[in-house]
Write a structure and sequence with these properties.
Layout (H helix, E strand, L loop, with lengths): L1 H18 L24 H11 L10 H12 L7 H6 L8 H29 L4 H9 L5 H32 L9 H18 L8 H23 L31 H11 L6 H7 L10 H30 L16 H32 L9 H19 L5 H27 L7 H29 L1
Helix pairs in contact: 1-5, 1-12, 2-13, 3-12, 5-6, 5-10, 5-11, 5-12, 5-15, 6-15, 7-8, 7-13, 7-14, 7-15, 8-13, 8-14, 9-12, 9-13, 10-15, 10-16, 13-14, 15-16
Keywords: Membrane, Signal, Transmembrane, Transmembrane helix
Subcellular location: Membrane
Protein name: Amino acid transporter transmembrane domain-containing protein
Length: 474
């Protein structure tokens, strides 16, 4: 499956290189490369903020291919991957369902890698280094509100997802420490941490001290993948296993199913994958900062290689987490897969601590993007330095997002619904429209026809994915 996935990525992106015009794009001056921590839930604004804090400046000639690949993979993979097993369970509980799920992951990863490449090439052609500016250069300055609003809502969804994970993770940790009653409930921890940890961190003007969150996020995600694979292999959660009797009946492995293997609920997983592969907000910067070829030719083929390896590596890690979770718990897989594991499982405890800590550090990085986006849409960006505006906006938005987490508990629904509507726009619809209507020669006539199809596919994914996400949660 890994070879098949890599072949799909390389084939589609190689085709993109062949389709783009031969005329080289103007070389860009080097800028700091973007990277980010892995604790995000598909948040472009959050990954941008974390990136600016954690990445080292590239050499004068630009960022190397290897550095670009690593940074891209870090941009892609986040804690939203912990919901993918529930995406498989949404359409089938049979073990064989993992096969179409992995094929779907590879296909959507390939499409996402291609559209990432499109944004980078169009951005270079029109002279823009942000997603918003690339769109505005193609469709006009006034239209920039569309990607801006989409990113703001996507960042708000990310903040909601963060709060859900924080509540569940720290409630489980508290239970293991012997806490009972209200002290072991997710809502109590959401309120407590929001008041005494997240609010002070979100009010900080200088977030450079939170750069350690990137390291913690990377380590936490990799550890969680290894832990889940180990528990699948040692059978601790199978009937009669060491921890099987220590989890709720609703969380125990179940592979019974009465539905056909392929049914409309598969679009819940499709929607989740749109969020899982979202890194597109930084595509123009990645292209501009990439080291140009020594012969002065276009960076397009090299950029496509970076996309292929970066998205391919991310797909492999996502596939491992999705497979380990689903093959362990089947149809019982929960929206936050760590909730399936016993509180008394010491390795699961470490995973919760790692993910919880990474979210604590990552939350303010995402939140600053949400706050700046909202102020920009309200025309108050020039007043952001005022203490009154800063405090009122921060407290209001924190109450809104974390207050919603007190009621909404299904991380899978948050990821799938956000991915269906917002992720589909940022990953499929907007990039395809930019490719179709740009007039600087970044895409050929054949490629424009391909992107007309991708535009329709994006609207289809958004509509049906949203309906099925809501229906599956009902």
């Amino acid at each position: 499956m890994a070879l098949s996935s890599r072949f799909v990525f390389l084939s589609l992106l190689a085709a993109a290189a062949a389709l783009q015009p031969a005329a080289p794009l103007a070389p860009a001056r080097a800028r700091p490369m973007i990277s980010r921590g892995l604790g995000r839930l598909a948040s472009p604004a959050g990954m941008r903020a974390a990136a600016e804090l954690t990445a080292a400046a590239p050499p004068p000639e630009g960022t190397s291919v290897s550095a670009a690949v690593i940074n891209l993979a870090k941009n892609i993979v986040g804690s939203g991957v912990l919901a993918l097993a529930a995406g498989v369970a949404a359409f089938s509980g049979a073990r064989v369902a993992l096969l179409p799920a992995l094929l779907l992951l590879a296909a959507i990863g390939a499409i996402s890698g291609y559209t990432f490449s499109v944004i980078g090439r169009v951005g270079e052609a029109v002279g823009a280094d942000t997603y918003r500016d690339t769109w505005a250069k193609v469709f006009g300055e006034k239209s920039g509100i569309l990607p801006d609003a989409t990113v703001v809502f996507m960042t708000a969804v990310a903040a909601l997802g963060y709060a859900i994970i924080i509540g569940d993770s720290f409630a489980s940790i508290a239970s293991l420490a012997g806490a009972t009653g209200i002290a072991a409930t997710p809502n109590a921890w959401i309120i407590f941490l929001s008041l005494f940890v997240l609010l002070p961190l979100s009010l900080l003007r200088d977030l450079s001290s939170l750069a350690v969150g990137s390291v913690i996020g990377n380590a936490g995600t990799l550890y969680t993948m290894l832990f889940m694979c180990l528990r699948l292999a040692d059978g601790s959660y199978r009937a009669g296993g060491k921890y099987a009797s220590l989890i709720a009946a609703s969380a125990r492995p179940s592979f019974a199913t009465t539905r056909p293997l392929l049914n409309p609920s598969i679009f819940v997983l499709v929607s989740m994958l749109a969020s899982a592969f979202l890194a597109h907000y930084n595509a123009p910067k990645f292209y501009k900062e990439l080291q140009p070829p020594a012969d002065g030719s276009s960076k397009g083929p090299t950029f496509n290689l970076v996309c292929a390896i970066g998205f391919g590596g991310a797909a492999l890690l996502m596939g491992a987490v999705m497979a380990a979770g689903f093959l362990t718990f089947g149809q019982a897989s929960q929206g936050l897969i760590l909730n399936n594991y016993a509180t008394a499982d010491p390795l699961a405890f470490l995973a919760r601590v790692g993910i919880g800590a990474s979210i604590i550090f990552s939350f303010p990085l995402n939140f600053v993007g949400l706050r700046e986006g909202v102020l920009g849409m309200l025309g108050l960006k020039a007043k952001a330095s005022k203490a009154s505006v800063h405090y009122i906006t921060t407290i209001s938005l924190l109450c809104l997002t974390n207050g919603a987490a007190l009621v909404m508990k299904d991380l899978g629904l948050v990821v799938s619904l956000g991915g269906a509507i917002l992720g589909s726009a940022l990953v499929y619809i907007f990039p395809a429209l930019m490719a179709v209507f740009e007039k600087k020669g970044a895409t050929s006539k054949v490629e424009k026809k391909l992107n007309i199809f991708l535009t329709g596919l994006g609207f289809f994914f958004a509509g049906l994915g949203a309906v099925m996400s809501i229906k599956s949660a009902a």
